[in-house]
Design goal:
The complex is a heterodimer of chains A (about 300) and B (about 500). Chain A is built from 13 helices and no strands. In chain A, about 40% of the residues are buried. The mean pLDDT of chain A is about 85. By secondary structure, chain B is α+β, with helices and mostly antiparallel strands. Chain B is about 30% helix and about 25% strand. In chain B, strands 1, 8, 9, 10, 11, 12, 13, 14, 15, 16 and 17 form an eleven-stranded mixed β-sheet that branches. In chain B, strand 6 and strand 7 form a beta hairpin. Chain B is globular and about 70 Å long. The chains are: A mainly alpha (about 300), B alpha+beta (about 500). Chains A and B meet through helix 2, helix 3, helix 5 and helix 7 of A and helix 4, helix 7 and helix 13 of B.
Chain lengths: ~300, ~500
């Protein structure tokens, strides 16, 4: 398995090079002149030229690309056009808050979602199923920004139990992670339910029941393990998405996250930030996929890596 | 996380120093966007410059009504030819790092911004300076390349601040943005770019008895509702801007005060005068007549705006009251007929912004213009598109802009910066922002002559003539002047939003 992981990690490199090239070309195709945007509304043409030189945007495109590649190889992603801080700092400041928010959101939503999913499948078409699926459908349909605002109004403004914005203490994490996790919990619930319903109709479950096992052992030991494969795939995908940051939640709770950084960077045509973020997101997805593949093997030992 | 531990530590610390009887006065300002820099010479957004007033002061400044006042300067003299400005400085002022404020400091700052190698974004505002000389420790002499009568207003602009020359030397022109050292009422403490910027009282501030609070925390919170929530929970004491739709909510809270302040933010509809049919003044006047500005203020700005009263907003020096332009559909139809468009025409209507207010304005304008047969296609431009399609369009002959909804605030508080970038014949894009591609030799001469003279009555006369000519030519349909909505808690006083959307908080106090 170690060899397998090493092989996958090695395969990562060409993918990243390709992504790096594509994203460099794409951001330079965006309409709008970053020097003009950075110089601002009042700027004269001379000032815009000064800014352009300052940002190194006066050089020919191939030269800029070489500089970018060379920088990346030396772990230097350049400086942000709008704030002039190193891109690595800009991303570093936001990575951990985004990461922890993702972890907490995933944790509660996976536990909650899977519990509801399993209960719905076991008591299929009875009241726990109805209640659970109603919750799940509401979770998907309720827009995150509205949920965030409603939660903030109730728990921060009216009851004054929790702070409104920021990320300083664990209390700051509660509302954003509920908001962010709601949709994931709903998706997990529906996914777990359908996967479980399929598994519960399989022959080996009937066999397990026939040999006299009590229902709890049938569900937890025999069904869960087998139902988990598609659920873990979904978990990986969701985790990847959340790691990219959520603009809506970050905006409402003023969370220092990567989603807003990306959107602001696109607005300002902040090339270095866009490039570094897209590279980071690609890397995250590749790593998560790898982890998911390894998890398959742990869940179902019959899966072999080659 | 580590919160319980931190709370315990904080509790112990409080016990240990709980001797002084008074409570620390800490104020939180919730503002709408993150700061781009702390260096006003390298900032192009009003907010960053307003924040920098915590630690920086200029030779001159504006009071809360945009009236020019001396700050670090005592007085000034202009030579007859309008080329040399001799500025007397106040005595006994020190920078936060202990450096003396004197003519050497003035020279260091202007030498820095006028050197193109430093690539500062405000270079254009000060490139008129030929040289700065030290006459004696408290007298500086600035020589201009050509007469420029609005020069003192440039010095009063929030970017023209005095930075400690010692700090400039220590950190260099780039890194000074992360270590600001000025003469202002507050000292810089820390800047966490994603969260807040904090400043603390300057104990040795030269104005005795000020500042009256201990710290200010500037907290950028992008979401309007979240800022409003912070005001309601008491996590912030001052916020700007308050969106129109939340005005009533905040007004109803007993501990908050909502303030609607006059502004110099003018909103107008510019028309490309080089292109048919807008080359015909009658068409342009017809459009100006066809728009009900009063209703526009009500519909799109929830009443927090007033019909524009001229080409230049009233709070700007040398502005002339000429309007509002009357709403008269019959007259508009008549003019359209005279111009040869009895059945109207089709055209593009672009908005320079894509926020919800701009959307409402565009739709309102579309509906109003339909009354006189002008059918418009609305496009809300995103920042990059705006730059590409309007601001950096190279060839005026092919410029695609037709009707263009945009706004301007003359941040030097003087008519020159309200007229020259927008209506001077030499200011067509990509140079500046004459999006009407308007050119009138009389107006051009007025603007030029006004810059060359330092005689105030003469200037007033020239600017009056220019504004009247423009008003009659109607390269724009003047729409509204916005009001600036802010909210503060009732125990906070001395914080004002100025007409250019900057803040004045030298008298800030918390009860």
């Amino acid at each position: 398995m170690t060899a397998y992981i090493a092989k996958r990690l090695l395969g990562l490199l060409p993918t990243l090079v390709l992504v790096g090239f594509l994203v460099f070309m794409l951001v330079h195709l965006l309409p709008g002149d970053p020097a003009r945007l950075a110089a601002g509304q009042d700027a004269t043409p001379e000032t815009v030229e000064l800014v352009r030189k300052d940002l190194g945007l006066d050089k020919p495109l191939p030269q800029q690309f070489l500089r970018f590649v060379n920088g990346v190889l030396h772990w230097d992603f350049g400086r942000s056009i709008s704030t002039k801080r190193p891109v690595a700092t800009e991303i570093g400041d936001r990575f951990m808050p985004t990461f922890w928010l993702t972890v907490w959101s995933m944790l509660w939503s996976v536990l909650f979602g899977m519990t509801i999913g399993i209960m719905s499948a076991v008591w299929r078409n009875r009241w726990p199923d109805r209640v659970g699926m109603t919750l799940a459908v509401s979770g998907i349909s309720f827009p995150a920004f509205a949920l965030g605002m409603v939660l903030m109004q109730i728990f921060a403004v009216d009851l004054n139990w929790l702070p409104t914005v920021g990320n300083d203490t664990w209390r700051h994490y509660i509302l954003p992670s509920i908001t962010l996790g709601a949709a994931v919990a709903a998706i997990m619930a529906r996914f777990t339910r359908s996967s479980f319903v399929d598994i519960l109709g399989e022959d080996f479950i009937r066999t397990a029941r026939a040999k006299g096992l009590d229902e709890r052992r049938v569900v937890i030991k025999h069904a869960l393990r087998n139902a988990l494969i598609p659920v873990v795939t979904m978990m990986g995908l969701q985790f990847g998405f959340l790691l990219g940051g959520s603009i809506v939640v970050e905006k409402v709770f003023n969370w220092p996250g990567l989603g807003r950084l990306l959107v602001d960077a696109v607005d300002m045509r902040d090339y270095p930030v866009i490039q570094a973020l897209v590279l980071l997101f690609s890397l995250e997805f590749i790593l998560i996929n790898l982890i998911v593949d390894v998890l398959y093997g742990l869940i179902n030992p019959t899966i072999r890596y080659r | 996380m580590k919160a319980p531990f931190r709370m315990l530590a904080a509790a112990l610390a409080t016990l240990a120093i709980a001797v002084p009887a008074y409570a620390a006065k800490d104020v939180v300002f919730a503002v709408a966007s993150t700061f781009t820099t702390t260096d006003p010479y390298d900032a192009n957004d009003t907010l960053s410059q307003a924040m920098a007033k915590s630690f920086y002061e200029g030779l001159f400044g504006f009071d809360r009504n945009m009236k020019l006042i001396p700050v670090l300067a005592e007085s000034y003299d202009v030579s007859k030819d309008g080329l040399t400005y001799t500025i007397k400085l106040k005595h006994g002022i020190k920078f936060h790092d202990g450096t003396d404020f004197n003519a050497e400091a003035v020279k260091a700052n202007f030498d820095r911004v006028t050197n193109p190698d430093n690539k500062l974004k405000r270079y254009g505002l000060y490139s008129i300076i030929a040289k700065t000389e030290v006459v004696d420790p408290y007298t500086a002499k600035i020589t201009l390349k050509e007469p420029f009568s609005a020069f003192i207003n440039d010095l009063a602009h929030p970017s023209g601040v005095m930075i400690s020359p010692a700090a400039l030397k220590q950190y260099g022109s780039k890194d000074i943005a992360f270590h600001p050292v000025g003469t202002g009422p507050f000292k810089f403490v820390e800047w966490k770019a994603t969260d807040y910027l904090k400043v603390a009282k300057n104990e040795n501030y030269w104005k005795k008895g000020f500042p009256k609070v201990d710290t200010i925390t500037w907290k950028p919170v992008v979401d309007n509702n979240s800022r409003a929530a912070m005001m309601q929970t008491g996590e912030a004491q001052f916020t700007f801007p308050v969106p129109y739709e939340l005005a009533d909510v905040l007004k109803a809270k007993p501990n908050l005060e909502l303030v609607a302040a006059p502004s110099i933010v003018l909103r107008y509809l510019s028309m490309n005068t080089q292109q048919k049919p807008f080359d015909n003044p009658k068409v342009r006047q017809a459009i100006a007549y066809a728009i009900n500005k009063q209703a526009l203020a009500k519909v799109a700005f929830a009443g927090y705006a007033e019909p524009a009263e001229g080409v230049v907003p009233q709070a700007v020096e040398y502005s002339v009251k000429l309007g509002p332009w009357p709403y008269d559909v019959a007259k508009a139809k008549q003019l359209m007929k005279e111009a040869g468009y009895p059945n109207g025409f089709e055209t593009e209507l672009w908005s320079a912004y894509n926020h919800s207010t701009a959307q409402k304005v565009s739709q309102f304008l579309q509906q109003q213009l339909q009354q006189i047969g002008i059918r418009t296609k609305i496009t809300l431009l995103e920042a990059g598109q705006r730059v590409q399609q309007v601001e950096s369009w190279q060839d005026p002959k092919t410029a695609p802009v037709r009707l263009y909804y945009v706004g301007w605030s003359a941040s030097t508080g003087e008519a020159d910066w309200a007229l020259r970038p927008l209506l001077f014949g030499d200011s067509w894009p990509p140079k500046l922002f004459n999006t009407a591609y308007y050119k009138n030799d009389k107006v051009d001469a007025d603007i030029k002559d006004a810059l060359a003279t330092s005689d105030k009555t003469e200037k007033a006369k020239l600017y009056k003539d220019a504004q009247e000519t423009i008003w009659h030519d109607a390269p724009w349909a003047p729409l509204v002047t916005e009001k600036l909505l802010s909210a503060h808690s009732k125990n906070l006083s001395g914080v004002y939003v100025m007409p250019d959307a900057s803040f004045e908080f030298s008298g800030i106090d918390l009860k």
